[in-house]
Specification:
Strand content: 5-15%
Helix content: 25-40%
Pfam family, one: SBP_bac_1
Protein name: ABC transporter substrate-binding protein
InterPro entries: Bact_solute-bd_prot1, SBP
Keywords: Signal
CATH superfamily of the largest domain: Periplasmic binding protein-like II
Organism: Paenibacillus sacheonensis
Length: 494
């Protein structure tokens, strides 16, 4: 979930990729917020040219109607001001792209994807040519015609078969391609080991359970000092997103699709069990913050500042903030998979990721150039050099480089091995324990109205955290009824 801020966390092992692939369907997202077919076609000459990216050879004698010969303007997603290193990388990419394609003017867009704004942006023709989005949005954008159908461009792309299917498949809807994978994550739990050590609390096994999480959180919490053992997100859609990991671990589902009908399924025994665990964290362990209404930035900030021992997120975000803003040391940070409900369960975490989508209102030439820009550094030596330069600059600045777990390429590919070789050269690249990689179990988010569901579940989480005597089953049933009547009953699945 991209609004939950940049999730992701190291190169996944080949075993992880294989295991997670079985969990991924070709259309596993949708919905809106935290949160089409386009009618983009291209000429053969244009689609073939799309394979030319980054350091790959360009065609010198381009056909007259090739996009590389025309004056074209595209607007692109540009990182927010707080992401200084990412902006530097993007600026370098723009410079190199223009050296190769001087006919293209690139406009930096300061608009960050917001599912509550995308319809307005599309209606006013103000959306960028190339914009960022996250895993839940594939079906949502495709069905509303807010993502271009780039199937022809993608099929002509030289490296399409080397794209990581765990990510790329999330934007293949009914056999058509609507987005370009960037990076992904499986939600995990990031632990401040120093806080555990300072309280004399034993560090749990990576193969941990809900009981281990609860007992650890309870032991490290110090309410008199305003220290919590864990900070589950308690506001915004990220709250419902956090909780959904526990629903999955308990064996539950968000919704079922059968006979063309979508039915709410989160008010199951598994849903009750997952909310009861949250109730225990709040009322039995007294382990959550007194002010539990924390969004992504609040919770991660509290963790990086040593005010909570554990936070649930795509691990690279907290790790980066802890190392580069919180002054933490690598040895003080432990990245865990999500805990399994019991000894017989799995370490299931929500599978999400970051994607680039091309505006269907753009011309064919603009779409083609947007595709070339999106994939410009993919599988290229120039892209590798750019990443290494970023690592070196961070080292010069006394900062760490925190790579994503799941990249747009597969870890086992030749290019994946080249990337790993670069990482292994530097001591300021954060390394995750290999042990957790074999434990991760990624599960895609729901196909329909994912963000509406997250928003609804946030109300349940807040109710559990604020009311000791809440009727959990009744609360879930009420939410399921609302989701069913307002959203699911209006969906007809082909």
């Amino acid at each position: 979930m991209k609004k939950l801020r940049r999730a992701s966390f190291v190169l996944a092992s080949a075993a992880l990729l294989t295991g997670m692939l079985s969990a991924c369907g070709t259309s596993n997202d949708n919905s809106n917020n935290g949160g089409n077919a386009g009618n983009a076609g291209t000429t053969n000459e244009g689609t073939n040219a799309a394979a030319d990216n980054g350091g790959n050879a360009a065609t010198n004698d381009a056909p007259a109607n090739d996009a590389s010969t025309k004056k074209i303007t595209i607007s692109i997603y540009y990182p927010t001001p707080d992401l200084v290193e990412k902006r530097a990388l993007e600026d370098d990419k723009i410079k190199r792209f223009n050296e190769k394609y001087p006919n293209v003017e690139i406009v930096k867009s300061d608009w960050q994807y917001n599912p509550n704004e995308i319809g307005i942006k599309m209606g006013a023709n103000e959306a960028p040519t190339l914009f960022n989005t996250y895993a839940t949005e594939g079906k949502f954008l495709a069905e509303r015609g807010w993502a271009a159908d780039i199937t022809d461009l993608f099929n002509a792309y030289e490296f399409k078969d080397q794209m990581n299917p765990i990510l790329q498949n999330q934007f293949i809807i009914d056999g058509k391609v609507y987005g370009i994978a960037q990076q992904g994550y499986v939600t995990g739990t990031v632990v401040n080991k120093k806080m555990l050590d300072d309280k004399g609390v034993a560090v749990p096994s990576y193969d941990w359970t809900w009981d281990d999480m609860l007992n650890t959180a309870k032991a490290v919490a110090d309410t008199k000092k305003g220290i919590s053992g864990i900070a589950p997100m308690g506001k915004g859609n990220e709250s419902g997103w956090n909780w959904t990991n526990f629903l999955f671990e308990a064996g539950g589902e968000i919704q079922t699709v059968d006979g063309g009908k979508v039915t709410a399924a989160f008010n199951s025994d598994a849903g009750v069990k997952a909310l009861e665990f949250y109730h225990k964290l709040a009322w039995e362990a007294n382990a959550i913050p007194k002010d539990f209404a924390l969004g992504w930035g609040d919770a991660v900030g509290a963790w990086a500042q040593g005010r909570t021992a554990m936070v649930i997120a795509g691990p690279d975000g907290p790790v980066d903030q802890g190392l580069n803003q919180g002054g933490m040391k690598p040895e003080d940070i432990l990245v865990y998979p999500m805990p399994k409900a019991d000894a017989s369960g799995k370490h299931t975490g929500v599978l999400g990721g970051d994607f680039l989508v091309i505006n269907p209102n753009a011309t064919k030439d603009e779409q083609e150039m947007a595709f070339r820009y999106a994939t410009f550094d993919y599988f290229s030596d120039k892209g590798l050099e750019s990443v290494e330069a970023s690592i070196q600059q961070r080292k010069t600045d006394g900062k760490f480089f925190v790579p994503p777990v799941i990249q747009y390429f597969t870890d086992s590919s030749d290019y994946g091995q080249k990337v790993k070789a670069v990482y292994d050269k530097y001591d300021n690249v954060y390394q995750y324990s290999p042990e957790i990689m074999s434990l991760l179990d990624g599960k895609p988010e729901a196909q329909f109205n994912t963000q509406d569901y997250y928003a609804e579940m946030t109300l349940n989480v807040q109710s559990v955290f604020s009311k000791k005597d809440v009727d959990i089953k009744a609360s879930l049933d009420n939410s399921a009824k609302k989701m069913q009547e307002k959203f699911y009953d209006n969906i007809k699945v082909q």
